[in-house]
Backbone:
C-alpha cells in the first residue's frame, strides 16, 4: 500500500469520523430541541383547549361537542426567511374526562374509548407520556382544569417530530456528503505535496546506476526521512568498503594465480621441447605438481570467499572441539607419516562444549595442522592441545619447525603472505582463513614461540559451557 | 653467458632455470631478495631475471640498490601485476625490460638475448666476424657459408669471445660464464672447449694469451 494512499485513507477516515460525530451530536441536539418545542406547543394547545372547552361546558350543560369541535387544523408555517415551505400538519387529538373517569367529550379524530386506562387517582395522566394507538406513537399531555372537575388529555403523533428532525438531519448531512469528494481531492493534492521530498529522494535513488555508491545529499532532506537517508548513506559506505575489499581480493587472487600459471606454462613448453625422456618426465612431473598447487590455491580462495560475512548462512551451535580435533588429526595423519612427524593430541578440557560452526572450525583445524606439518622438517613434532582455562577454551597447535620471527608475526594473517622458506610451497591464504574463522567465533588468535622450538598458535574461544548429559 | 635468476616460486624457478640452461646459459638461481643482493655484490652476470614479489627484500629494492652501485648489467623483471604503474615503477627503478606472468618461455629467452646484445652495443641480432656468422637466437654457426655444429658450451665460449672482441677474457671469467654455482666444473674445461672450437673452425681465430686467457681480435680496419 502506498504511503500516499495510506495517508489519504487515514485522513479521510479521520475527517469522516469527526464529521459523523459532529453530525450525530447536532442530530441529538435537534431532536431534543424539537421534543421540547413540540411538548411546549402541545401543552399550550392543550391548555388553550381546556380553557375553551371548560368554559363551554360550564355554560351549556349538555353539548354535542362531538360533532362541533373539529380540531383537525392545518397550520401552515411559511418560512419566508429561508425561502422554504414547511408543511406540518399539527394534528391534535383530545379527550375530556369527568371526575368519575367518564369520557364525556372527544375530538372527532379521537378514538371513542379512553386513550389510556385511567388510574383511580388519575395520577398517570398528569403531564407528558408516550402511548401507542392507531398503530403509531403518540405524545400525550394531560391536565386538569383549575377546579379539577375535568381532565383533558391531548395527543400528538410522533411522526411530526420525526419528520422535522429528519429534515434537520438531511439539511446538515447533505453539504457534508457533497463536500466529501471535494475534500478527498484537496487531501490528495495536499498529501502529494507533503510527500514531495520523499519522492525527490526516491527519484534520485532510482536514477542511480549500480556503480554509484556516493552518499545522498541530505542538506534539504526533511527530518522525518533524515534517519532513513543517513542509514542509506551508511549502507552505501559499507557496500563501498566491501566492494573495494572484494575487488582487491579478486585482483590479488588473480595475480597469485599468475605465478603458478607461469610455472605451468614454462614446464609445458619445456616438456614439448625436450628431446630426451628424463627432462621431459621432469617437466611433466613439475607440471602435475603445479596443477595440484593451483587447485589448492583455488580451494583455499573458495573457502575464503565462503567465509565472507555475506555468505555466513551456517548456523552456530554447540559442538565438541575434541571430536573435531580428532577428525582433523586423522585426516592429516598421512602427511605426518610421509614426513615421519610425530603428530598428537592432548585434551584436558573436560570435553567442554563450544558454541560455533562446525564446518568452519574443521577448516580452521585443518589449516593449522597442515601448516604446522608443512613447515616442520622431517622427523619433527606437531602437538595439538585443548586446554580449559577459567573462562575460555584454548586450542593450541605447536610444532618443532623454524617458527616465525616476532617482527613478522603480524604479517602472517594478511592474504598471500608466505614464510621465508620457499620449499614449503603454501599458497599464503591458510592463516588469513584461520583468522577469519576466529573473528567469526569471537576467538582471539595469538602466535608464540613453542616449547617444541617452532611456532605455537593459540586460539582462545570465549564462553564455553560444560557438557551436561 | 651467466644469468642470475631471482624467483621465489619453486615451480616457476625450476622451469626458467631448466629453460635457460637448455639455451646454453649458466644460471644461478636464488629464491629471496637478500640472497639476490649478496649474489649481485659478489658476482658478475651478463643479465639478471628478477621477480618483484620476493621474500625478505622486495625485488624493486634489490634493483634500485644494484643500480645505485653503478651497475649496468641488463635486468629483466617478472611481475604478476599487470597494472601500468607497476611496469612504470619497475622500469623507473632501473629495469631494462619486463614480462608479465604467465609468459612464454621462448619470449623470455628472446628478450634476454636482446638485452645482452644491446648491453654489448650491438643492434644486429647476428654476430659476424670475417667469414663467421653466429646467430645466438637460432643457436647456429656458419663458417664459410657452411653450417658448423658446436656443443652448448662451445657455442657459449665462442659467443662470449665474439661479444668481447679485442678484449682478453680470463680463463676464470669464461669458466664463470659457463657454470652456475650448482654446476660441477670440469678441470681444463675451457681449454678443451677452445681446442674443439679451433679444430672445427680456423685455428688462428682464437688467440691464447699465455697465463692470462683468450681473445678474438677486432676485425681489421675497425678503429679502436
Residues:
Amino acid at each position: 500500500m502506498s504511503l500516499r494512499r495510506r495517508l489519504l485513507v487515514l485522513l479521510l477516515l479521520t475527517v469522516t469520523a469527526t464529521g459523523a460525530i459532529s453530525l450525530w451530536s447536532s442530530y441529538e441536539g435537534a431532536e431534543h430541541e424539537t421534543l421540547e418545542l413540540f411538548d411546549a406547543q402541545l401543552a399550550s394547545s392543550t391548555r388553550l383547549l381546556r380553557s375553551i372547552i371548560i368554559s363551554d361546558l360550564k355554560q351549556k350543560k349538555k353539548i354535542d361537542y362531538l360533532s362541533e369541535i373539529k380540531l383537525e387544523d392545518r397550520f401552515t408555517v411559511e418560512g419566508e426567511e429561508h425561502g422554504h415551505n414547511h408543511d406540518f400538519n399539527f394534528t391534535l387529538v383530545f379527550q375530556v374526562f369527568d371526575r368519575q373517569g367518564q369520557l364525556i367529550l372527544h375530538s372527532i379524530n379521537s378514538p371513542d374509548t379512553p386513550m389510556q386506562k385511567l388510574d383511580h387517582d388519575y395520577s398517570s395522566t398528569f403531564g407528558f407520556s408516550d402511548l401507542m394507538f392507531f398503530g403509531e406513537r403518540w405524545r400525550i399531555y394531560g391536565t386538569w382544569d383549575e377546579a379539577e372537575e375535568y381532565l383533558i388529555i391531548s395527543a400528538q403523533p410522533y411522526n411530526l417530530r420525526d419528520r422535522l428532525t429528519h429534515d434537520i438531519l438531511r439539511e446538515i448531512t447533505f453539504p457534508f456528503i457533497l463536500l466529501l469528494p471535494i475534500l478527498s481531492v484537496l487531501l490528495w493534492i495536499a498529501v502529494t505535496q507533503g510527500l514531495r521530498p520523499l519522492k525527490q529522494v526516491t527519484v534520485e535513488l532510482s536514477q542511480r546506476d549500480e556503480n554509484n555508491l556516493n552518499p545522498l545529499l541530505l542538506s534539504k532532506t526533511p527530518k522525518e526521512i533524515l534517519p532513513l537517508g543517513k542509514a542509506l548513506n551508511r549502507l552505501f559506505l559499507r557496500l563501498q568498503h566491501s566492494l573495494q575489499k572484494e575487488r582487491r581480493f579478486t585482483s590479488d587472487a588473480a595475480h597469485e594465480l599468475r605465478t603458478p600459471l607461469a610455472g605451468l606454462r614454462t614446464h609445458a613448453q619445456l616438456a614439448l621441447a625436450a628431446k630426451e625422456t628424463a627432462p621431459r618426465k621432469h617437466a611433466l612431473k613439475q607440471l602435475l605438481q603445479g596443477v595440484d598447487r593451483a587447485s589448492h590455491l583455488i580451494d583455499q580462495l573458495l573457502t575464503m570467499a565462503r567465509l565472507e560475512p555475506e555468505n555466513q548462512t551456517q548456523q552456530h551451535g554447540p559442538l565438541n572441539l575434541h571430536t573435531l580435533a580428532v577428525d582433523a588429526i586423522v585426516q592429516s595423519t598421512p602427511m605426518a607419516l610421509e614426513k615421519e612427524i610425530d603428530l598428537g593430541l592432548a585434551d584436558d578440557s573436560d570435553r567442554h562444549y563450544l558454541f560455533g560452526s562446525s564446518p568452519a572450525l574443521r577448516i580452521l583445524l585443518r589449516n593449522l595442522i597442515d601448516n604446522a606439518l608443512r613447515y616442520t622438517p622431517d622427523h619433527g613434532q606437531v602437538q595439538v592441545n585443548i586446554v580449559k582455562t577459567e573462562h575460555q577454551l584454548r586450542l593450541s597447535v605447536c610444532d618443532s619447525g623454524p617458527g616465525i620471527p616476532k617482527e613478522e608475526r603480524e604479517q602472517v594473517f594478511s592474504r598471500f603472505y608466505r614464510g621465508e622458506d620457499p620449499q614449503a610451497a603454501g599458497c599464503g591464504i591458510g592463516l588469513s582463513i584461520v583468522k577469519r574463522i576466529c573473528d567469526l567465533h569471537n576467538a582471539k588468535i595469538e602466535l608464540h614461540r613453542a616449547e617444541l622450538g617452532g611456532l605455537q598458535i593459540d586460539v582462545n574461544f570465549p564462553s564455553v559451557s560444560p557438557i551436561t548429559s | 653467458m651467466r644469468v642470475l635468476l631471482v624467483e621465489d616460486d619453486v615451480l616457476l624457478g625450476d622451469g626458467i632455470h631448466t629453460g635457460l640452461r637448455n639455451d646454453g646459459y649458466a644460471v644461478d638461481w636464488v629464491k629471496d631478495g637478500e640472497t639476490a643482493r649478496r649474489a649481485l655484490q659478489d658476482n658478475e652476470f651478463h643479465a639478471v631475471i628478477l621477480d618483484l614479489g620476493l621474500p625478505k627484500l622486495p625485488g624493486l629494492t634489490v634493483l634500485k640498490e644494484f643500480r645505485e652501485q653503478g651497475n649496468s648489467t641488463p635486468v629483466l623483471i617478472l611481475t604478476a601485476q599487470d597494472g601500468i604503474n607497476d611496469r612504470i615503477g619497475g622500469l623507473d627503478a632501473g629495469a631494462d625490460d619486463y614480462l608479465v606472468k604467465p609468459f612464454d618461455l621462448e619470449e623470455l629467452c628472446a628478450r634476454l638475448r636482446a638485452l645482452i646484445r644491446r648491453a654489448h652495443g650491438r643492434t644486429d641480432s647476428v654476430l659476424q666476424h670475417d667469414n663467421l656468422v653466429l646467430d645466438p637466437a637460432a643457436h647456429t654457426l656458419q663458417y664459410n657459408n657452411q653450417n658448423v655444429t658446436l656443443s652448448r658450451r662451445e657455442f657459449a665460449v665462442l659467443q662470449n669471445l665474439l661479444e668481447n672482441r679485442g678484449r682478453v677474457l680470463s680463463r676464470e671469467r669464461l669458466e664463470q660464464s659457463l657454470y652456475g654455482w650448482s654446476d660441477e666444473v670440469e678441470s681444463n674445461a675451457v681449454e678443451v672447449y677452445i681446442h674443439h672450437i679451433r679444430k672445427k673452425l680456423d685455428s688462428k681465430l682464437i688467440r691464447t694469451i699465455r697465463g692470462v686467457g683468450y681473445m678474438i681480435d677486432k676485425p681489421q680496419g675497425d678503429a679502436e
